[in-house]
């Protein structure tokens, strides 16, 4: 299983020292890093390297990280982890809304980084065939697909995991902290904005009317739960 | 002259003034009716009942300048018109009456003279005729009197009437009342006049109303009377009655004219006032509207200025002020933007290399077992100090974010119990190391407030970690409460506490209780400053209380909804188990015991080494000059009980204090305070 988790990581960062250091750490953990320093070349590098995960610095020469993130997300659901020096709300939220799955604030510890990468790369080992229903959606967990009236809806792995977590226990209200732990793999409570932003993104894809959500329902003051099916 | 037929204006004013008066009267009656004891609630009820329908009117009155001016003008012009009216009417009446009275008087004098003359003539005629027999003359007198009245009144032709009445109570001798023109004699002549006529021989006059025997309406009149003698030499009263109907008609015409004119004048004044005030009020209202929009942030709003009058000058000054404000605000905004930008840039520029260093240090740290001891230790130090450097940098950036006004609140309803639970769980490892137990009370019910969970957690983590670090291994109590529009979390420790004046300064940046002490524990010295800023961002309070040796309490109060101002806190700042409170409760022996109880702390603090307990204080946020302290705490600010320290020091020497301390312990204040007391004992035992 450990070997399964190793993978190709594309590091998009203009700071050569940091990139090199990241390379050292990632190789030490058994990943295969590749590097690109320029935002304009990031997309080409992404297509070429076909990474399992992208580490993306938000401040880049050329295209900035947000733009790169949007471009990559437009053509792939591959996990993206942002590296950001700004923990300000706006920056983080903008980054997450542009499609990043997770973010990590500089300066970070190598272990923390690796844990985040692993959490994003962790694919539950061949899940048993399982059909879930949430609202009027049908989820095929093994086939990694979500369908409404036979129409399949494209979700990123993270959004899929989020939806599955909610659908597995439709009777339970999930606090943001619980979701952080189950979906993102955080052991300690972290930034609940992650959950908020991703729920919004998920809603924009699966809800008929994102203003009046029926699939992912907000429980005021507590968190979220699956809508009645 | 009857006043009741006067113009309508006074009547109107009477009704107007009458309304409140009537109320007051009724209210007085009510008060009297219900008597002293029950009076006040009834009165209050009544007042409320009276005021309720008036409230909108009162509000309109308070808020509307135009209405105020117009109503005042109306009332004042009404007063002036009334006054003028009364004066004019008085004058006219006097003029009319004077002429009438003069004419009447000469007429009456002539009449009286004629009556006298006729009496004299009759007397001489009777004398000439021969023997005056007693009953004949009286027969004559009756006839004579009737003739007299007839002849006297016939000259008047309706301009006056004549009445004779017997003098005094005497009604004999044919001198019964007689009257011309169907006048009811005794009813028309007022009693007071008859007395006056009786008492003197001069003519007397009075105003009266003529009453007729027929159904004819009575009318006002002037009556002039005189005592005259009949042919027999007996006195009788002769009255001339001059009707004043004509004069009254003239007067009421004048009154009516005046009232109409007065009404017009008052209404006109009102209209003029309304117009004039409008000229002033309209620009003032416009200015108020513009000022409101300005304060709402629309800085480009300006007043329209026309002409060169005072209003125009007001407008120009206003616009100048607005322009200057706009300039200053935009300058400040630029400054703030620049600072924010700078912070953001510095943050990024510093963090990227720091990340590399951090990772490199960790890689080295991981591999330290392969190094020789010196290098290994160096790697450890490097990693540790990098941690400290990182947290310092993070705190500095956070503080400068607050300073730049870049901190944004992301409030949503959160249950503070959840936050407290997370914080306590997070502080558990540290508490175990220190041998402290963290207790949470008041978490039976949800304590929900609109707040930024991340910031509240940061505040509470700071408070709890501080309490554990300075709590000397004693319990730390986290108390939650909600009441009214506020929720509060108080973190109480029983450690060394705070010295007088420190409670306000703990929130200063880089403040340390004892600057001479080297920094031993971690902590950047910015934690409480950031916590205070976080609390302020919520519109909440963060306050400290402490007493030397008695521990401290930090209280966070947040409004339940983000836009609600705080009026109070559900938890008192000074805990119930503080020494000050316990002394005040009076269960302990007079201040001696309580004072003594603090002494051991003082004593062992002196020698220094004997008291590791003193240590935790210094690392508290530190060093800055007191001037910079953010004492601008909302609410009652921070408070310290200074009492125990100085008296204890002054009175007894450290050695003498030992026995009373034990004595003080013998008086626990009661059940709920059991814990603190046992803690206290533990402390003293040491």
Q: Brief overview, please?
A:
The complex is a heterodimer of chains A (229) and B (686). Chain A is α/β, with parallel strands linked by helices and 229 residues long.
Notes on the structure:
- The complex is a heterodimer of chains A (229) and B (686).
- Chain A has 229 residues and is an alpha/beta fold.
- Chain A contains nine helices and twelve strands.
- In chain A, the strands form three sheets. A five-stranded parallel sheet of chain A has the order 2-1-3-4-5, with helices on both faces. In chain A, strands 6-7-8-9 form a four-stranded antiparallel sheet, covered by helices on one side.
- In chain A, β4, α5 and β5 form a beta-alpha-beta unit.
- Chain A starts with a helix and ends with a strand.
- The N terminus of chain A is likely disordered.
- Chain B is of the alpha+beta class and 686 residues long.
- Among the domains of chain B are: 109 residues, Helix Hairpins (Orthogonal Bundle), CATH 1.10.287; 274 residues, 2-Layer Sandwich (Heat Shock Protein 90).
- In chain B, α7 runs antiparallel to α8 and α10 packs antiparallel against α12.
- Classes of the chains: A alpha/beta (229), B alpha+beta (686).
- The interface between A and B is medium-sized, with 32 and 31 residues.
Task: Draw up the topology in text.
The complex is a heterodimer of chains A (229) and B (686).
Chain A: H1 2-5, E1 8-12, H2 16-28, E2 32-36, H3 39-49, E3 53-57, H4 65-75, E4 80-84, H5 89-97, E5 102-105, H6 110-121, E6 131-134, E7 137-140, E8 145-148, E9 151-153, H7 157-168, E10 174-175, H8 176-184, H9 193-206, E11 216-219, E12 223-226
Chain B: H1 8-63, H2 65-129, H3 135-154, E1 161-166, E2 178-179, H4 185-188, H5 191-199, E3 204-210, E4 219-229, E5 235-243, H6 245-295, H7 310-366, H8 373-403, E6 412-415, H9 416-434, E7 438-441, E8 448-451, H10 453-470, E9 476-483, E10 486-493, H11 502-505, H12 527-537, E11 541-547, E12 551-559, H13 579-585, H14 592-605, E13 639-640, H15 645-651, H16 658-665, H17 674-685
Parallel strand pairs in B: 7-9, 11-13
Antiparallel strand pairs in B: 1-2, 1-5, 3-4, 4-5, 6-8, 9-10, 10-12, 11-12
Helix pairs in contact in B: 1-2, 2-3, 2-6, 6-7, 7-8, 8-12, 9-10, 10-12, 14-15, 14-16
């Amino acid at each position: 299983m450990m070997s399964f988790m190793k993978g190709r990581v594309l590091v998009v960062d203009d700071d050569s020292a940091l990139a090199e250091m990241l390379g050292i750490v990632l190789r030490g953990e058994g990943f295969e890093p590749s590097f690109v320093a320029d935002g304009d070349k990031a997309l080409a590098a992404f297509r070429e390297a076909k990474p399992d995960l992208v580490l993306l610095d938000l401040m880049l020469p050329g295209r900035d990280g947000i733009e790169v993130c949007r471009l990559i997300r437009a053509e792939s659901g591959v996990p993206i982890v942002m590296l950001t020096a700004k923990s300000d709300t706006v920056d983080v939220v903008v980054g997450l809304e542009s499609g990043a799955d997770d973010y990590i604030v500089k300066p970070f510890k190598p272990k923390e980084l690796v844990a985040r990468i692993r959490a994003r790369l962790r694919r539950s080992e061949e899940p048993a065939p399982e059909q879930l229903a949430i609202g009027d959606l049908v989820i095929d967990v093994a086939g990694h697909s979500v369908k409404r009236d036979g129409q399949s809806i494209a979700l990123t792995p993270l959004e899929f995991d989020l939806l599955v977590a909610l659908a597995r226990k439709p009777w339970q209200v999930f606090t943001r902290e619980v979701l952080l732990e189950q979906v993102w793999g955080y052991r300690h409570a972290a930034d609940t904005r992650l959950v908020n932003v991703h729920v919004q993104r998920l809603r924009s894809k699966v809800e008929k009317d994102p203003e009046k959500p029926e699939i992912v329902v907000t429980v005021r003051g507590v968190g979220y739960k699956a809508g009645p099916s | 002259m009857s006043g009741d037929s006067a113009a309508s204006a006074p009547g109107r004013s009477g009704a107007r003034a009458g309304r409140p008066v009537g109320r007051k009267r009724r209210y007085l009656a009510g008060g009297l009716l219900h008597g002293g004891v029950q009076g006040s609630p009834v009165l209050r009820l009544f007042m409320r009942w009276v005021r309720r329908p008036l409230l909108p009117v009162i509000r309109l009155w308070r808020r509307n300048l135009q209405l105020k001016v117009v109503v005042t003008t109306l009332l004042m012009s009404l007063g002036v018109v009334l006054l003028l009216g009364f004066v004019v009417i008085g004058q006219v009446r006097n003029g009319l009456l004077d002429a009438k009275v003069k004419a009447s008087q000469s007429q009456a004098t002539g009449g009286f003279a004629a009556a006298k003359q006729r009496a004299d003539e009759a007397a001489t005629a009777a004398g000439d005729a021969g023997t005056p027999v007693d009953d004949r003359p009286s027969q004559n007198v009756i006839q004579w009197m009737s003739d007299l009245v007839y002849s006297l009144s016939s000259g008047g032709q309706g301009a006056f009437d004549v009445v004779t009445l017997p003098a005094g109570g005497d009604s004999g001798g044919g001198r019964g009342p007689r009257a011309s023109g169907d006048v009811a004699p005794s009813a028309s002549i007022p009693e007071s006049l008859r007395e006056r006529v009786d008492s003197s021989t001069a003519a007397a006059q009075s105003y009266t109303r003529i009453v007729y025997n027929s159904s004819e309406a009575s009318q006002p009149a002037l009556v002039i009377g005189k005592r005259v003698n009949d042919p027999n030499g007996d006195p009788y009263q002769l009255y001339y009655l001059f009707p004043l109907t004509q004069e009254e008609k003239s007067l009421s015409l004048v009154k009516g004219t005046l009232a109409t004119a007065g009404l017009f004048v008052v209404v006109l004044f009102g209209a003029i006032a309304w117009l004039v005030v409008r000229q002033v009020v309209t620009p003032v209202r416009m200015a108020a509207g513009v000022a409101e929009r300005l304060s709402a942030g629309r800085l480009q709003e300006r007043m329209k200025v026309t002409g060169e009058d005072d209003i125009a000058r007001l407008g120009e000054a206003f616009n100048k002020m607005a322009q200057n404000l706009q300039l200053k605000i935009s300058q400040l905004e630029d400054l703030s933007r620049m600072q924010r930008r700078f912070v953001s840039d510095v943050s990024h520029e510093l963090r990227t290399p720091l990340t590399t260093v951090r990772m490199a240090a960790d890689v080295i740290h991981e591999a330290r077992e392969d190094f020789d001891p010196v290098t290994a230790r160096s790697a450890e130090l490097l990693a540790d100090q990098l941690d400290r450097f990182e947290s310092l940098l993070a705190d500095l950036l956070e503080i400068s974010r607050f300073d730049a006004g870049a901190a944004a609140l992301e409030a949503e309803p959160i249950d503070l119990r959840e936050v407290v639970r997370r914080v306590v769980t997070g502080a558990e490892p540290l508490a175990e190391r220190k041998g402290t137990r963290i207790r949470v009370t008041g978490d039976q019910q949800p304590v929900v407030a609109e707040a930024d969970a991340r910031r509240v957690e940061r505040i509470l983590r700071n408070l709890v970690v501080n309490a554990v670090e300075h709590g000397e291994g004693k319990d730390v109590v986290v108390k939650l409460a909600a009441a009214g529009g506020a929720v509060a979390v108080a973190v109480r420790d029983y450690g060394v506490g705070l010295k007088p004046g420190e409670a306000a300064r703990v929130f200063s940046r880089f403040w340390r209780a004892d600057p001479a002490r080297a920094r031993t524990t971690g902590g950047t010295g910015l934690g409480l400053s950031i916590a205070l800023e976080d609390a302020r961002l919520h519109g909440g309070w963060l306050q400290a209380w402490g007493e030397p040796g008695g521990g401290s309490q930090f209280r966070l109060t947040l409004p339940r909804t983000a836009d609600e101002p705080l009026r109070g806190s559900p938890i008192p700042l000074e805990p119930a188990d503080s020494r000050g409170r316990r002394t005040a409760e009076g269960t302990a022996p007079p201040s001696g015991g309580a004072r003594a109880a603090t002494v051991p702390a003082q004593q062992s603090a002196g020698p220094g080494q004997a008291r590791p307990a003193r240590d935790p204080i210094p690392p508290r946020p530190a060093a800055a000059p007191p001037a910079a302290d953010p004492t601008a705490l909302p609410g009652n600010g921070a408070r310290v009980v200074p009492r125990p320290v100085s008296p204890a020091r002054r009175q007894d020497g450290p050695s003498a204090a030992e026995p009373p301390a034990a004595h003080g312990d013998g008086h626990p204040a009661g059940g709920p305070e059991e814990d603190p007391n046992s803690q206290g004992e533990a402390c003293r035992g040491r």
